[in-house]
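Hey, can you fold this one?
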Amino acid sequence: MPRSYLMILLMLFSLQWSAMPLLAQQVPKLASQSLHPDILSLAKPNFVPNKAESASVETAAETKNMFVLPIAEASIRYSYPLEASYQKTTHIIFPSKIIYVDLGSDGIIVDKVQPTENVLKIKANKLGFDQTTLVVITEEGKYYPFLVDYNDNPSILHINMAGNVKQDRQAGVFRSGAWEGITLSGEFTNSEEVNDLSDKVLHRRRFIKDIGSTKMRMSFTLTGIYIHHKMLFFQVLLENRSEIDYAIDFFKFFIKDRDVTKRMAFQELELPDVQRYPVSGKVVPHKGDLELVFALPMVTYGEDKVLELQVYEAQGGRHLRFELDSDVIIRAKGL
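Sure. Predicted structure:
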């Protein structure tokens, strides 16, 4: 190789090595030009938000807390523990009639034990459901909250809430309607005025003909609705076309969610102040009928609710029921 070529190669190598430090200095500058400043600042190990940003976050938190009221310890109602199984049924006995039930989810099935009014049965709707809630209110205005967990083999299957008074008192819970803060409406008592109005309704001509139910040659139909001040009067007809007398056990009136099955969360509010006239009407004779009037406080409800009327046969299976939409209540005539 000629000496001149060798000199040229040595010069090129020397220039390459001398340029490396300069190139190393330029690379971060190029990177900083192509990346957003916020990204580069977050990449720094000792990054601290600026004072303006910190003040803004603190101000937002203080503003939010301005609209939050504290809850006193004495106002908090803790829940009773409860376990539900898919294969076993848990029963709870309450001191008085159940008028309201609310489920936190469809993980459990809850229903009143017929023909009782104060016994609730609980069962799991699915294996290993997530923890859920159950709330029960009785006609005395007492409030019972439960926290329900799944257990294949519950340690307790039968509970009598009336026997839990000592434990309630130790926990600071005093079972009375006033302490619970729940007030149930009651617009009237068993008075002569109510009986006189009911007798008047009993002898009115039928104007509703398309609402009722039929089962095993028994029919239970609504024949009229009337209103007087804050009271509703339901005129009903029971017809027995069989050869067997129909002995009435009891009637039930309650508001419930529309189209809800037992395997879904449900809400129902039984109307406790229902008065029947005449009181002596307890049997529908074979091949005969019986007209009755029920008086109860004024009630209105939305389109997602229905008013259900039920009649149960004593020691029999001919239980009849029908539902009333809110539109039917509007058809009530004045007295």
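DSSP finds seven helices and 19 strands in the chain. Let me know if you want another pass with a different chain boundary.
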